[in-house]
């Protein structure tokens, strides 16, 4: 293999194509690091699972940030939900916001499920999105209403469990990753991993109600964007 000349991969033994493919596998599919190691080995690429982990840590967030900048503006209807996760035997809460199209806007891992935690999520969302939504949809947790009155007083708030299936469904990929990773080791690890995981999922998300031809075109655009973001070509 020839060494890549891309400055982002300077001093790395493997070229950009291999590194970007390994990072893509880590965040796109519910695979353990050892599974990724074996999949690369099947292609004749001998690299340890620890090296794969280091690649994911070094490049994942940078790729996610570039994906976020490339995505279209978020929808004007935000669905917010929180789910409990166990980290090192302690209960934590994963707060997530998605728009009406299913695009994950942001996530926040916190140790509390109260108004202070809800306010922190809303402030983070407003900072990242740059604009308040037209409608905010949540379950009946009172903390959302308290936080909204302070942070986004002019936004319409709908509280009904049946309206929030989109946000609740967005937790399912996290549950799969949680199982394959044998739970997250720390709140920081969960925050770092899921921040990248959800942005990669956004890029490769299949649009609702599309036929196979439209899906193929959307997937091709996603791969083209990934190539441009990572400075690599697809591994054959």
UniProtKB/TrEMBL annotation:
<feature type="domain" description="DDE">
    <location>
        <begin position="76"/>
        <end position="205"/>
    </location>
</feature>
<dbReference type="GO" id="GO:0006310">
    <property type="term" value="P:DNA recombination"/>
</dbReference>
<dbReference type="InterPro" id="IPR032874">
    <property type="entry name" value="DDE_dom"/>
</dbReference>
<keyword id="KW-0233">DNA recombination</keyword>
<keyword id="KW-0238">DNA-binding</keyword>
<protein>
    <submittedName>
        <fullName>Putative transposase</fullName>
    </submittedName>
</protein>
<dbReference type="GO" id="GO:0032196">
    <property type="term" value="P:transposition"/>
</dbReference>
<dbReference type="InterPro" id="IPR047930">
    <property type="entry name" value="Transpos_IS6"/>
</dbReference>
<keyword id="KW-0815">Transposition</keyword>
<dbReference type="Pfam" id="PF13610">
    <property type="entry name" value="DDE_Tnp_IS240"/>
</dbReference>
<dbReference type="GO" id="GO:0003677">
    <property type="term" value="F:DNA binding"/>
</dbReference>
<dbReference type="InterPro" id="IPR052183">
    <property type="entry name" value="IS_Transposase"/>
</dbReference>
């Amino acid at each position: 293999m020839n060494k890549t000349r891309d400055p982002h991969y300077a001093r790395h033994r493997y070229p950009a194509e291999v590194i970007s493919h390994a990072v893509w596998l880590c965040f796109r599919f519910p695979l353990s690091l050892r599974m990724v190691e074996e999949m690369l080995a099947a292609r004749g690429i001998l690299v340890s699972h620890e090296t794969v982990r280091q690649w994911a840590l070094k490049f994942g967030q940078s790729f996610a940030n570039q994906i976020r900048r490339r995505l279209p503006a978020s929808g004007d209807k935000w669905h917010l939900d929180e789910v409990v996760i166990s980290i090192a035997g302690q209960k934590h809460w994963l707060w997530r916001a998605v728009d009406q199209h299913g695009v994950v806007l942001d996530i926040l891992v916190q140790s509390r499920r109260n108004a202070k935690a809800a306010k922190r999520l809303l402030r983070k969302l407003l900072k990242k999105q740059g604009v308040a939504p037209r409608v905010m949809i949540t379950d009946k947790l009172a903390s959302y209403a308290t936080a909204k009155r302070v942070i986004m007083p002019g936004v319409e708030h709908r509280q009904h469990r049946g309206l929030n299936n989109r946000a609740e469904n967005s937790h399912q990929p996290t549950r799969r990753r949680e199982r394959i990773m044998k739970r997250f080791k720390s709140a920081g690890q969960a925050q770092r991993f899921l921040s990248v995981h959800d942005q990669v999922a956004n890029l490769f998300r299949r649009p609702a109600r599309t036929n196979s031809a439209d899906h193929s075109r959307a997937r091709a655009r996603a791969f083209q964007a990934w190539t441009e973001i990572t400075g690599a070509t697809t591994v054959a």
